[in-house]
Amino acid sequence: MPLRSDWSGNVCPIARGIDAVGDPWVLLILRESLAGARRFDDFKRRMDAADNVLSSRLSSMVSSGLLETRAYTTGPRPRVEYLPTRAATDALPILQAYAAWAHEHRPSENEDPTFAVICGACGVASDRSEVCEHCGALLDVDNEVAWQRPGPWEGRVVTLG
Fold this sequence. Notes:
The chain contains 6 helices and 6 strands. By secondary structure, it is an alpha+beta fold. It has 2 domains: 13-88, Orthogonal Bundle (Arc Repressor Mutant, subunit A); 91-159, no CATH class.
């Protein structure tokens, strides 16, 4: 991880938030976790991250309460799945707003299909990150919000949660 100050006890909530989710790899792991990645190999395949970087970030995310582990094998080398916690699912509006901002202000020539937040209740794309502009439903993991993005699932809607 890059060297920086520990802001976990800072009086500013933005600084404390950055301390928890400000690392770019953490944001990308959150994205993949909320889109259904659970195992180390799932994250590695979707993100093309080096093993040491991914292992370090997953461990720090478990320590900070963003992910929890559940064993799926036993024996001399047990394997675990990484499950998003409430803290992770509550970060969904941050990811949605960040992606919408980047789509608007940092466009990519290769972004096809374009990013969209799709309401699980009505199926309509929304430019807002927390409430559907069409039906007013809360856009969260429990409402099965989906988003469309290029990458490993190009052209496919990914259901979050």
